[in-house]
Amino acid sequence: MKKRTLAILVLLALVLAPAALAETVYYYNDQGWAEVTVYTWEPSEQWGSWPGGPTVDEGDGWFSIDVADYAVGNHIIFNNNNGGAQTSDLVLDEGKLYFYGSNTTGDGSLTAEEAVAKFGSAPGVEAPVEEAPAEEAPAESAPKTGDSELVFLAVGALVLAACAAAVIAKKVKA
């Protein structure tokens, strides 16, 4: 009975662990800051102490930083490199990777589609192409690249967890 309980606990720990973002997050500098830095905490100061680390200028007012090892639900603040302006305490969310504003003018996070609608463009998002009306029903849209990657990662994690549980159960029997 202990063997099976241990295998179940290992499987649950793997499945219930916070999802890691496999993405880049973006900040739209509608404040006109000369520099944009990013500060994170909980669980760690990933880019050092305040004011944090530099971002990459993507052009058209957008700045980016890779958060591949950071988890959904962790905290992030964009600031003007300790010049006195910053966003509020924002939270990383798998679906909303585009941030804007400041804590004095209002800020928030957006999906890619919302960012394009609000600012006219967004890095990593192709501008919509106007097409002539189709005569036949439109084909089903292909899944987003991120969706297929997430499915692949989830299936891989489940397979790995099942294998680990089987190995643990086998070792405990022996």
Can you tell me about this structure?
This protein has 174 residues and is an alpha+beta fold. The protein has a domain at 20-119: Immunoglobulin-like, CATH 2.60.40. The chain is 30% helix and 22% strand. It has helices spanning 2-16, 112-119, 145-173, and strands at 24-28, 37-41, 53-54, 56-59, 62-66, 75-79, 90-91, 98-102, 106-110. Strand 8 and strand 9 form a beta hairpin. Helix 1 runs antiparallel to helix 3 (145-173). The longest helix is centred in the last third of the chain and has 29 residues, at 145-173. The model is unreliable at 9-22 and 142-148 (pLDDT under 50).
Quickly describe the structure.
The protein has 174 residues and is of the alpha+beta class. The protein contains three helices and nine strands; from the N terminus they run H-E-E-E-E-E-E-E-E-E-H-H. It has a domain of 100 residues: Immunoglobulin-like (Sandwich).
Layout of strands and helices, then pairs:
Layout (H helix, E strand, L loop, with lengths): L1 H15 L7 E5 L8 E5 L11 E2 L1 E4 L2 E5 L8 E5 L10 E2 L6 E5 L3 E5 L1 H8 L25 H29 L1
Parallel strand pairs: 1-8
Antiparallel strand pairs: 1-5, 2-3, 2-6, 4-5, 6-7, 8-9
Helix pairs in contact: 1-3
**Beta strands, count:** 9
Question: Which band does the percent of strand residues land in?
Answer: 15-25%
Helix content: 25-40%
- Number of DSSP helical runs: 3
Order of helices and strands: HEEEEEEEEEHH
Structural class: alpha+beta
Rounded to the nearest angstrom, the distance between the terminal CA atoms is 14 Å
Strand order of the largest sheet: 4-5-1-8-9
Uncertain residue segments: 9-22, 142-148
